[in-house]
Q: What sequence folds into this?
């Protein structure tokens, strides 16, 4: 090495050459990753902006990121820089002051970044971007400030590299933080997703550092005199901080593991949890997704065989009542805690002993159990930072938790010997037995917080509010809850917390059915499912019973239902008031019978003794009133079950408690006095002495010779072996799955049984070994359920003189292990050999065996790391290619119908909708005052309007909807047929940093899956191909589609993938081969839009909405205050029949405008001066024959000639192509312009093979739809368009919902109804007596309707019984063609049974039914009849365009089928000739908007019926013909 002078002469003022050490490069990234991982973990645990702990977490995260991930990485990374030939004098010399400053700068900047991002779970892209920019600035700032601390070099920077480093830092930071907060907001709480965020954050730091380092040159100023010291200090500090971070991460992993084990142990105990809901129905959970909980006790001791802790138990009843009045015990909790601390405990784990040495139950056990419950509730209140009185009320059910084990299969001979009493007796003739293996109990205190301050306080305490559907799976898994549908249970808790499940004032007739409980004492009673305090009942329209009415009821005393109906019929011949009362009573009985739908109902008898029940006052929250109930009584058979899903059995004694424990019940005061009398003496009693006995843990023990006599008397307890403790591990531990007790059981059970059973004395003394006959087992008299206590004993030789332990004279062998089991207690003795003894098989000392085992263990440790890596890699691959449960491919919710016992085929009995005449009459009644006004009147029957109606009616509102034309007659039937998030919107969101576009994509992806869940027969997944003509496009589009998949998260179903050129041509043979380098395929949804729209409308009608198509709103009504109160509606159908139509006045509290492009016309009815908000845009689509695309693969062209996107998709056997986007005028049936059609055909031809000629004549149909883009009238810039959707409420109360797209119709409806409910204070309520939409009693569709929005769970008509194989059942029963059967099931779902039954027989062998209305398409005559009877089809256009899709698939075929359609409708609707002629003209005019060729617009019906549609001689032939002219045959 040269001297200092030579180096200085060589490099002074010069650029010193540099290189990099790869090892330090890798190490620097690892250091950065450790800091980033710790940062992400800390941020994940932050729950609010408030609270000391949250602020400490925030500061710690900033230090972890700034101080470790950035600062430490910088100095470790700089150690990788080799200057010159790595001479010490050329090493970098750091300034201590600048180095310290560079530590604090990124910490402060990142603290600002994390504060900017916030702790809200509603992700804000603006905040995230700001935070990412600040984080990137902190990374860059620290790097260059750290370089300023270099004393002996002048750093020279390349501006290009500086800019590149900054871009990398900012971009990766934004992506990493967005990923993290999106994952956290969606509760996809996976460690690998947080790890991916940490990976990207570390990539931001490292990427920035090394790009900057490559662009940095070092000019030597002077040599380093203290190189080793300076670098060593920096590296030491960096490594120390990194090690600290690593230990913190390790501690976090250990804590997570401990928490998992703790939850597993807790799941075996009796636990009290808190279910706290906010006003929107979200539930309070910890950052790990767990409910707050406190252990009550490890075990409940059953004193008799029937003493089972359940909702029938008196202890649960006591808890249930005390939770309604915590004030009764609030003052005693401190005394209870003190009393419990003075009870006898085990010295091993300081847990309270339930059973003493003699096997007797502890004194005052019931009172102690109650104290434990109160103390647990107080502990739960402390966790929530609440007072005990505000902690909530006890839910009326107990959930099973834990993992069931299997009882050990004991040797028969041992069991028999134990039953004979051959192994001793237990004092007081008591033994402890276990019935359930590994099973705990979980109770809940539920409440709802309404104030925002309470929500903020709970979040500051370290909790979060989450949607139930997001966390129900996490809660069930981690708390090991065994309920099948925890989500519905939690939803029931939310309803229970409101306390509104109480009867209304008035007179009711109820069903009082009881039966003896099977297997135990007591009775069970029938109650309403989900509201266990209510009997099945129906109200009578009476406020109270008069004396004469009581006299009438006494006439029917002890009559059964059949006789009662006969007597009521006879009573109608008496006085008018008695006739009215008889009619009311009969109607109520009929309604109650239909509601219960149970054959036992007819066996009940009426009792003349009426009862008074608590009820809710109409205009007050004080339920002090009572209502009257006339009861139908029956003693049901002991094995009877609740046949109706609307009912369930609960213990009669708990039902009684429920009746007394409502809010402000007068019984609570008496209960409070009882509580004080019971507990005060115990709590205030004198202190008791602590027990002096030391209780040792059961496990491996070594017995001295003077205690070996215990082996001679196995069954006799010796003061230390027959008691239970209230801890994590009972001294009496059943462990059926293990042969050895060398370690404590990790699972304890929540129930210990203490039953009487006699045992005889033990074996004769003097015998040191166990005889062969101890293996005899006999069947237990208690059902063979046994518990084994395992004790593993090392037996050694004892020196009698000295009492010291010595080597046994006879070496132990494998045969020395003996297992002894008896009913109630068992002992497993394992005679292990002591160190120094020889193995009789090998003759070697056991010490050598241990050494050999150590060698084996060492080998195992060496292969552990590669094995772990392989396992992790394999797990990642398994996750990537895991099987998915694709919606729509699972089995039907309702099984298909079968033949009954009598040999008849039982078709489903679907609920009928009201006829159109009944719907018109219902509208009129609201205006005349005969019925209450509607809560909501919806104008517009498109996707949004019907969605609003369905949402509102399922919330318990009274709803009406009117549509000027037909359901889905406008934009809703003229879409691209996609259910998609929108890849083009996502691209715009990324490149334009448009948060609104991003929100639209995110919302649409969530809604996309709801389509397949609620209507699997009408929607399906569709792979869409994106062809690539340049290789460089592959990574760009791959990243885009993967980001699309990532945003979908759990809503996605299949991941996007890449296809090579050959695979792409195989999947899409029509593609042009030239310039094709490959393709990407991603998944979106497709649906039948107008059928979906009609199904939403019909579902709303089934649930009770009044719906009317062909009814125009001609005016809006206002009250004296200028507020809207109704509308004038005109029914247009009578005019079509040549009759006069009178205006209909409809009264409603709320008017909702959902008229799409016609929004402004309704707004002007409200206010003539209002500004127009709709900016209409026309989108043209064309239909091509099916041979243009594969049947299961679509195509997207993201870069057309003018930059627009075009889709090319299979649909209904044909191919749909579109769309355009041009400004337009608003008309009812816009015509597709020829320019747009030609543009679509030209763009399609660019992607198809040159062999395929895309001709104008191949266009089977074409249409133009108007998309209603809207402006916000209340925005500052009223010219800017709303990207998503708009809900606006005018000063007079007109609610306008506009914008959006088909995919988000449900979310639009939810937002609209939420706004209306809030603005007009509409009375939402749980939906009682919901119709059986499935057509069977197997599913209660009303169970989920709790008064909140549930449309994401409400299946549409046809969805319940649909499956991909349903068409086979239809073919086999009705003899319908396969193509027709598939079409019916995919258009009507399980309603295909009804449609097929309406098809006319063909009198052929096959097909036996179903006459096609168009030869080339699977539409049949039964669909027309079904559309008229069940879907309100009133015109021929309704049928050919919206009920069937024939007009959209082939306009000429629709024209040819029109005579048959009109004939069937005329027969069903009684049309005269004039109406039929009008239908012909109107329909032909409509078909022009579907692309019907111009020459065909003038054809007559007679020409069509005769098949004379030849226009080959016309000028338009070349344009519209699908094939070439036939050659002219020359005659010879």
A:
């Amino acid at each position: 090495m040269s001297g200092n002078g030579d180096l200085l002469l060589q490099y002074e003022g010069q650029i010193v050459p540099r290189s990099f050490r790869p090892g330090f490069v890798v190490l620097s990234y690892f250091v950065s990753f450790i800091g980033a991982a710790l940062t992400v973990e800390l941020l994940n645990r932050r729950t609010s902006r408030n609270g000391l702990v949250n602020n400490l977490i925030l500061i710690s995260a900033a230090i972890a990121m700034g101080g470790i991930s950035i600062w430490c990485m910088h100095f470790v990374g700089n150690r990788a820089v080799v200057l010159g030939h790595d001479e010490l004098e050329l090493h970098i010399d750091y300034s201590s002051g600048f180095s310290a400053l560079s530590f604090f700068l990124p910490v402060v900047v990142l603290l600002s970044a994390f504060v900017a991002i916030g702790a809200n779970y509603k992700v804000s892209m603006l905040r995230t971007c700001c935070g990412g920019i600040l984080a990137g600035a902190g990374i860059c700032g620290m790097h260059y400030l750290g370089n300023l601390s270099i004393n002996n070099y002048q750093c020279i920077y390349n501006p290009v590299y500086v800019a590149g480093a900054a871009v990398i830092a900012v971009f990766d930071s934004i992506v990493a933080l967005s990923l993290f907060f999106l994952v956290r907001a969606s509760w996809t709480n996976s460690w690998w997703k947080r790890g991916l965020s940490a990976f990207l954050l570390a990539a931001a730091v490292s990427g920035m550092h090394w790009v900057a380092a490559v662009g940095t040159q070092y000019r030597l100023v002077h040599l380093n005199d203290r190189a080793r010291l300076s670098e060593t200090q920096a590296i030491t500090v960096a490594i120390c901080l990194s090690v600290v971070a690593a230990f913190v991460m390790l501690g976090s992993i250990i804590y997570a593991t401990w928490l998992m084990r703790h939850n597993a142990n807790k799941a075996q105990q009796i636990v009290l949890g808190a279910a706290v809901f906010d006003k929107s129905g979200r539930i309070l959970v910890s950052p790990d997704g767990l409910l707050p909980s406190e252990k009550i006790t490890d075990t409940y001791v059953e004193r008799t065989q029937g003493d089972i802790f359940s909702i029938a138990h008196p202890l649960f009843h006591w808890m249930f009542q005390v939770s309604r009045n915590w004030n009764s015990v609030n003052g005693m909790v401190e005394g209870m805690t003190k009393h419990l601390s003075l009870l006898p405990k085990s010295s091993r784990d300081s847990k309270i002993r339930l059973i003493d040495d003699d096997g007797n139950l502890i004194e005052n056990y019931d009172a102690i159990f109650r104290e434990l419950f109160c103390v647990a509730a107080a502990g739960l209140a402390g966790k929530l930072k609440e007072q005990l009185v505000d902690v909530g009320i006890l839910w009326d059910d107990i959930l099973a938790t834990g993992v069931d084990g299997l009882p050990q299969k004991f040797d028969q001979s041992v069991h028999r010997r134990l039953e004979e009493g051959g192994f001793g007796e237990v004092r007081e003739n008591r033994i402890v037995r276990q019935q359930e293996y590994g099973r705990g109990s979980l109770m809940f205190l539920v409440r709802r917080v309404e104030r925002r301050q309470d929500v903020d306080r709970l979040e500051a305490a370290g909790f979060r509010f989450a949607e139930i559907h997001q966390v129900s799976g996490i809660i069930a898994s981690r708390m090991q809850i065994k309920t099948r549908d925890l989500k519905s249970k939690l939803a029931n808790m939310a309803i229970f917390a409101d306390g509104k499940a109480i009867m209304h004032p008035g007179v009711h007739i109820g069903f009082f059915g009881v039966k003896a409980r099977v297997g135990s004492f007591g009775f069970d009673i029938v109650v309403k499912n989900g509201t266990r305090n209510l009997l099945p009942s129906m109200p009578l329209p009476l406020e109270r019973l008069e004396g004469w009415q009581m006299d009438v009821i006494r006439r029917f005393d002890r009559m059964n239902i059949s006789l009662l109906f006969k007597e009521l019929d006879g009573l109608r011949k008496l006085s008018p008031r008695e006739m009215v009362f008889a009619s009311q009573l009969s109607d109520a009985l009929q309604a109650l019978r239909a509601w219960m739908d149970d054959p036992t109902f007819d066996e009940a008898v009426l009792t003349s003794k009426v009862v008074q029940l608590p009820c809710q006052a109409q205009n007050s929250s004080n339920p002090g009133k009572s209502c009257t109930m006339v009861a139908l009584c029956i003693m049901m058979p002991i094995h009877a079950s609740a046949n109706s899903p609307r009912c369930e059995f609960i213990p009669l004694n708990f039902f009684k408690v429920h009746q007394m424990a409502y809010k402000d019940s007068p019984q609570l005061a008496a209960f409070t006095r009882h509580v004080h009398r019971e507990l005060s003496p115990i709590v205030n009693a004198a202190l008791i002495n602590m027990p002096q006995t030391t209780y040792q843990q059961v496990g491996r023990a070594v017995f001295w010779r003077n205690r070996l006599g215990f082996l001679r008397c196995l069954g006799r307890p010796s003061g230390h072996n027959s008691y239970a403790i209230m801890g994590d591990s009972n001294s009496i531990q059943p462990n059926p799955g293990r042969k050895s007790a060398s370690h404590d059981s990790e699972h304890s059970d929540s129930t210990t049984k203490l039953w009487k059973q006699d045992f005889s004395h033990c074996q004769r003394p003097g015998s040191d070994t166990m005889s062969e006959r101890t293996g005899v087992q006999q069947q237990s008299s208690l059902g063979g359920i046994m518990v084994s206590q395992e004790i593993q004993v090392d037996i050694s030789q004892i020196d009698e003189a000295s009492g010291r332990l010595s080597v046994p004279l006879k070496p132990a062998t494998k045969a020395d292990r003996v297992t002894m089991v008896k009913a109630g207690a068992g002992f497993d003795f394992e005679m292990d050999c002591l160190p120094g003894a020889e193995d009789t098989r090998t003759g070697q000392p056991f010490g050598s065996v241990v050494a050999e085992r150590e060698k084996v263990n060492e080998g195992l440790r060496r292969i552990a790391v590669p094995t772990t890596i392989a396992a992790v890699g394999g797990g990642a691959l398994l996750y990537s290619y895991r099987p998915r449960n694709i919606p729509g491919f699972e089995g039907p919710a309702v099984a298909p119908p079968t033949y009954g016992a009598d040999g008849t085929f039982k078709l489903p009995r679907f609920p009928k909708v009201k006829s159109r005449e009944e719907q018109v009459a219902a509208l009129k009644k609201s205006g005349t005052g005969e019925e209450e006004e509607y809560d909501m009147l919806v104008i517009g029957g498109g996707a949004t309007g019907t969605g609003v109606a369905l949402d509102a009616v399922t919330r318990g509102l009274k709803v009406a909807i009117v549509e000027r034309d037909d359901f889905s007659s406008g934009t809703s039937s003229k879409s691209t047929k996609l259910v998609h998030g929108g890849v083009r919107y996502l691209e715009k969101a990324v490149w334009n940093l448009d948060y609104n576009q991003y929100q639209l994509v995110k919302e649409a992806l969530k809604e996309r899956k709801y389509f397949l869940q609620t209507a699997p027969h009408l929607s399906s997944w569709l792979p869409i191909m994106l062809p690539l003509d340049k290789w460089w496009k592959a990574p760009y589009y791959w990243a885009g589609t993967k980001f699309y998949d990532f945003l979908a998260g759990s809503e996605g179903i299949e991941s996007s993938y890449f296809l090579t050129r050959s695979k792409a041509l195989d999947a899409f043979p029509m593609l042009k081969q030239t310039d094709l380098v490959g393709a990407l395929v991603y998944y979106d949804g497709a649906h039948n839009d107008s059928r979906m729209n009609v199904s939403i409308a019909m579902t709303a009608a089934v649930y009770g909405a009044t719906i009317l198509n062909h009814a125009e709103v001609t005016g809006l009504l206002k009250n004296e205050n200028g507020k809207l109160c109704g509308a004038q509606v005109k029914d247009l159908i009578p005019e079509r029949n040549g009759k006069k139509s009178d205006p209909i006045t409809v009264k409603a509290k709320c008017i909702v405008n959902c008229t799409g492009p016609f929004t402004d016309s309704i707004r002007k009815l409200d206010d003539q001066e209002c500004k127009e908000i709709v900016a209409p845009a026309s989108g043209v689509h064309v239909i091509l024959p099916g041979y243009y695309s594969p049947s299961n693969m679509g195509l997207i062209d993201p870069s057309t000639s003018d930059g627009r996107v075009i889709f090319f998709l299979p649909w209904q056997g044909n191919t749909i192509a579109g769309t355009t986007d041009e400004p337009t005028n608003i008309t009812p049936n816009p015509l597709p312009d020829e320019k747009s059609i030609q543009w679509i055909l030209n763009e399609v031809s660019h992607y198809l093979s040159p062999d395929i000629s895309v001709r104008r004549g191949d266009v089977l149909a074409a249409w133009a739809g108007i998309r209603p883009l809207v402006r916000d009238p209340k925005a500052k810039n009223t010219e800017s368009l709303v990207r998503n959707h708009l809900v606006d409420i005018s000063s007079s109360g007109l609610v306008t919902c506009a914008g959006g797209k088909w995919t988000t119709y449900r979310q639009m409806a939810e937002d609209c109804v939420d706004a209306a409910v809030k603005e007009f204070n509409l009375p939402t309520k749980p939906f009682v007596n919901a119709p059986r939409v499935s057509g069977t009693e197997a599913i209660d569709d009303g169970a989920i309707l709790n008064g909140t929005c549930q449309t994401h769970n409400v299946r549409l008509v046809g969805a319940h019984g649909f499956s991909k194989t349903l068409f086979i059942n239809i073919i086999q029963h009705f003899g319908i063609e396969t193509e027709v059967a598939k079409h019916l099931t995919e258009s009507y779902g399980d309603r295909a049974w009804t449609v097929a039954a309406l098809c006319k027989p063909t009198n052929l062998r096959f097909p036996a039914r179903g006459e096609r209305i168009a030869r080339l398409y699977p539409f049949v005559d039964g669909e027309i009849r079904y559309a008229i009877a069940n879907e309100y089809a009133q015109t021929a256009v309704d049928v050919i365009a919206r009920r069937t899709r024939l007009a959209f698939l082939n306009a000429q075929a629709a024209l040819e089928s029109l005579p048959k359609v009109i004939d069937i409708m005329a027969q069903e609707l009684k049309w005269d000739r004039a109406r039929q002629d009008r239908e012909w003209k109107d329909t032909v005019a409509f078909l022009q908007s579907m692309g019907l060729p111009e020459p065909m617009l003038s054809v007559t019906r007679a020409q069509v019926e005769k098949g004379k549609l030849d226009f080959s001689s016309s000028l338009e032939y070349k344009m519209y013909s699908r094939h070439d002219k036939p050659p002219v045959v020359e005659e010879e």
